[in-house]
Design a protein that fits this description.
alpha+beta, four-stranded antiparallel beta sheet, 9 strands, globular
């Protein structure tokens, strides 16, 4: 999938403001470091939902990270050098554990922080479905079109061919909650020329 389609279909924990470098909650509401930056705690937005109506949870965040590492995706190979593990403490709290050197000093806390506005969260149950139907084969999973996807974003696939991809707004999108946008996006369809 292209970057454009991922942005419309999947969401990150936070949004990044390129003007001032600040992070603004999306699937999550806030984050905090412990004193030595070995743990980054993120609190999930309780209004965030998947397109199937189930909540976006800390388990989804942890499983997304674990899947990237397990199947050696470019994301997993990169962030495994800086994140030791991602732990779902409870349904609404996830902790990113920094990978540390022999002295207990985090290798690069900025790379841990970079993860939360950059990596799209996927649903644990759906990832497990994709693993099962592909026999947990990494190459087969990369070729899976995931036409039955479960997403958190405001759009879902509508039509595609060799020349274009068209997305349609999900009118049940969770972002219309008052804690986020308070309404649906105005655009009903988005066409992306390949």
């Amino acid at each position: 999938q292209s970057d454009m389609s991922r942005v419309l279909i999947y969401e990150t924990l936070f949004m990044y403001n390129m003007l001032d470098g600040s992070l603004h909650g999306l699937l999550a509401t806030d984050y905090e470091w412990n004193d030595d930056q070995t743990e980054l705690t993120v609190h999930m937005n309780p209004d965030a939902k998947w397109s199937d109506g189930t909540p976006v949870t800390a388990e989804d965040v942890a499983y997304t990270f674990d899947t990237h590492v397990k199947y050696s995706s470019a994301t997993g190979v990169d962030y495994a050098n800086y994140i030791e593990s991602v732990e779902a403490v409870d349904e609404g709290t996830v902790v990113f554990h920094s990978l540390c050197d022999d002295t207990g000093t985090p290798i690069n806390p900025l790379k841990v922080l970079e993860y939360i506005p950059k990596v799209y969260v996927m649903q644990k149950a759906y990832l497990q479905t994709v693993e099962e139907r592909n026999g947990s084969d990494a190459e087969a999973m990369k070729l899976d079109k995931m036409e039955d996807l479960v997403a958190s974003g405001p759009y879902k696939p509508y039509y595609d061919d060799d020349q274009k991809v068209v997305f349609v707004r999900d009118d049940k999108y969770w972002g219309q909650a008052e804690s986020k946008w308070g309404k649906l996006p105005a655009t009903k369809y988005i066409a992306h020329t390949i």
